[in-house]
Amino acid sequence: MPVYKRHAKINSFGQLIITEPINLPPGEVEVIILQPVTIKIDSPSEATASPHEILPKKLKSGVKSLKELLENAPPIPPDFDPSQARWEALKEKYDL
Hints:
The chain is mainly alpha-helical. The chain has a domain at 1-34. It contains four helices and two strands; from the N terminus they run ββαααα. The chain has helices at 44-48, 51-54, 64-72, 82-93; strands at 8-10, 16-18. A two-stranded antiparallel ribbon has the order 1-2. Strand 1 (8-10) and strand 2 form a beta hairpin. The longest helix is centred in the C-terminal third of the chain and has 12 residues, at 82-93.
């Protein structure tokens, strides 16, 4: 199954509007929607902080095995894109 990634918008009626052309023959398609996540900044000091300062330094867990895993996990790279990671995971999961 070929995979196409396009940006789209949802209008006020709840309809999906794809703003970029796609050359596909008529027929059924499967649609996977990824909604971007926005981060709300409450204080002005957070607005001037670098992304590394906003992210937690260490993740904590009450489960012993997860605690050990999180302690040994490598740090998150500064160029990490969660949207791209989700897309890659979906492609792998659904064999796209």
